[in-house]
Amino acid sequence: NSLAEACNIASDKIYDWTTHKWISTGTKSAVLFISTELMPEELQTCLLAHISGIDEDRIVEWKDITEEEDRILEESAIVVKESVLLGEYMPDFTIVSIEEKISEYVINNNITHCFFDYINDSPSLYSYYIQKTGVRLQTHQILFLFSASLKQLANKYSIYLGSATQMSSNWKDEKDANALKGSKAIAEKADGGILG
Question: How open is the CA angle 135-122-38, to the nearest 5 degrees?
């Protein structure tokens, strides 16, 4: 969802199979998408699928792709290339490395939006908070502090900063922040959110 939202902001059109026409998504704005798990090559197929409206699995397998779909995929690749969607792959991060990256893109690319996919722990994050606090914090404390820091970055740079987190194993039984994996306190720093 974050990647689709970033794509809609960074590009100016997507294909609509109902009308068989390109439809406007508005004007382009520079967006930084920080991936913690997916490599850039993996994101490209997601982007093509979103812009073209063709199922990602069919693109990957090149399953029953029609001539029209092939043409639309070629045009979608041009839309992706002409977009102002910028990406970084950061599997091991701290709040310092995230801030440095966001600052770099604010200064050099004038980003207005950033998506951090997704709030989770990393070895460097644990080390960072041990050095900063002098104690070994629990996962829920680290995720809360990290969420608070992301909120501060959004305010500091006056950008929209969207993120997500995983759901707990009992998410079907929970209808509130208890459904969040690792720390329900993450929700305290969000301006808005969706469970699903």
Answer: 170
Q: Label residue 183 by pLDDT band (50, 70, 90).
A: very low
The answer to whether 32 touches 7, Cβ cutoff 8 Å, is: no
The structure tokens listed for 174 are: 């929970």
Distances (CA, A) of 181 to 99, 109, 128: 24, 33, 21
The full DSSP string for 79-122 is HHHHS-EEEEE-SS--HHHHHHHHHHHHHHH--SEEEEE-----
| Predicted TM-score (pTM) of this structure | 0.81
Six-digit token string for 20: 């068989």
84-96 core/surface letters (b: 16 or more CB in 10 A; e: else): bbbbbebeebbbe
